[in-house]
């Protein structure tokens, strides 16, 4: 990664920074830049904008913080993974519901899914934006070219500029150099030449590795992102999977301090003003729960790939039926605007885990309003074949 010093006020005149003073979402990655008015309009027209879709559970890395729950690994006994054809069909269904983005948040490393290129081409062919989260381990120059032609936006992992720390965090020697080369290919190709940008770095901040008293590394990466028109997805850990322990996420106060350190840089060096929304730094606000659905490896549907409230199963019902079910409407009624229930409940010391957590709201809803047949059918389908392992594969000690 390019090294930089303290920014001068000249950076406040960069075109993407000027555009962000009009609309902060101009600094978010293309395909995820849902502003409040876009979300409000979609809500009033019951339009779905965003599909999150898991691809393969395979991954060559072994990140000590990986948030995947057991249902996001391959080969869960008696659960049948979606095929590429089924995924392509879901993409078309999402398009018919109004979707403009299909995001691939995992489950493992999306780029090594056998259907990866057909699926990205399918999204592009429907005029939607493919958004890919990748470790960057398999991102060579020709893949970067191909992704560029297919209109993709890429979130690439970058936890530390110290290659030793980066390798340690993912449990694989030599990873950091490959991922840094991957980021270089994206910039060389021009993924950061549009507004909004088509490239983001994903940095998870953990007390174990990359947190320091004044968050120097976070601030430095943030500044580099701003100067280079790279979306800064700098966040505290999602307490799920291997990270489902309070000790692995920054305390609430530390998280607030981190957001404040970033906000000051934005205000003083880039002339950007906003109210930060924990847990996202830099003024980013997740609004996906109001406008999207997440489908996991086996076709189980949730509101988001983090917390995940179970909504149904695509092998029993169409995406449209699930989107319009009474429980799904109930889940997306409160305006999210950046609020991350999953992290907040851990900071509030609410105890629950696994599937119990994913069904908690439904059980309360059921008690008050009666069962939702779409959720019930989905649960039946999931349990029919189920023998969900209760243990997440361990990353070993860190
Ligand atoms: C599950 S990964 C899948 C994509 C790819 N294998 C990767 O790691 O980039 C998707 C994104 O979630 C991030 N992630 C993984 N575990 C996390 C956690 N506990 N909290 C926050 N983000 C996490 C990863 O860094 C990555 O950017
Ligand atoms: S977070 Fe790490 S271990 Fe988990 S899927 Fe991504 S690269 Fe693989």
UniProtKB/TrEMBL annotation:
Residues 286-333 form the 4Fe4S-binding SPASM domain. One of its GO terms (molecular function) is iron-sulfur cluster binding. It holds the Pfam family SPASM. Keywords: Iron, Iron-sulfur, Metal-binding, S-adenosyl-L-methionine. Coiled coil: none annotated. Its cofactor is [4Fe-4S] cluster. Signal peptide: none annotated. Residues 56-221 form the Radical SAM core domain. InterPro entries: 4Fe4S-binding_SPASM_dom, Aldolase_TIM, Radical_SAM_PqqE_MftC-like, rSAM, rSAM_sf. This is Radical SAM protein. It comes from Sinorhizobium glycinis.
């Amino acid at each position: 990664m390019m090294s930089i010093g303290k920014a001068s006020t000249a950076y406040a005149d960069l075109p993407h920074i000027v555009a962000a003073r009009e609309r902060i979402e101009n600094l978010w990655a293309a395909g995820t830049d849902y502003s409040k008015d876009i979300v409000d309009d979609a809500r009033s027209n019951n339009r779905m904008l965003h599909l999150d879709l898991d691809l393969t559970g395979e991954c060559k890395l072994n990140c000590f913080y990986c948030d995947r729950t057991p249902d996001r690994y391959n080969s869960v006994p008696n659960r049948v993974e979606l095929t590429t054809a089924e995924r392509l069909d879901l993409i078309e269904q999402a398009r018919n519901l109004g979707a403009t983005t299909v995001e691939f948040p995992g489950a493992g490393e999306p780029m090594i899914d056998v259907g990866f290129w057909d699926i990205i081409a399918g999204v592009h062919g429907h005029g939607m934006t493919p958004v890919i989260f990748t470790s960057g381990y398999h991102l060579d120059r020709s893949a970067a070219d191909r992704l560029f032609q297919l209109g993709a936006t890429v979130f690439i992992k970058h936890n530390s500029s110290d290659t030793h720390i980066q390798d340690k965090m993912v449990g694989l020697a030599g990873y950091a150099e490959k991922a840094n080369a991957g980021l270089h290919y994206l910039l060389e190709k021009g993924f950061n030449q549009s507004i909004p940008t088509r490239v983001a770095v994903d940095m998870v901040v953990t007390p174990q590795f990359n947190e320091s008293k004044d968050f120097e590394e976070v601030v430095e990466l943030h500044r580099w992102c701003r100067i280079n028109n790279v979306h800064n997805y700098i966040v505290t850990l999602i307490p799920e999977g291997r990270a489902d322990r309070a000790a692995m996420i920054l305390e609430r106060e530390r998280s607030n301090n981190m957001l404040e350190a970033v906000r000051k840089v934005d205000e003083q060096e880039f002339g950007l003003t906003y109210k930060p929304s924990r847990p996202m730094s830099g003024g980013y606000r997740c609004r996906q729960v109001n406008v999207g659905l997440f489908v996991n490896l086996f076709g189980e549907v949730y509101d988001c790939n983090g917390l995940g409230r179970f909504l149904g199963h695509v092998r029993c019902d169409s995406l449209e039926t699930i989107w319009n079910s009474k429980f799904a409407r109930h889940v997306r009624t409160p305006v999210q605007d950046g609020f991350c229930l999953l992290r907040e409940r851990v900071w509030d010391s609410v105890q629950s885990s696994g599937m119990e957590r994913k069904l908690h709201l439904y059980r309360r809803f059921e008690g008050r309003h009666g069962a939702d047949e779409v959720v019930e059918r989905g649960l039946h389908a999931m349990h029919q074949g189920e023998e969900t392992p209760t243990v997440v594969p361990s990353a070993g000690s860190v």
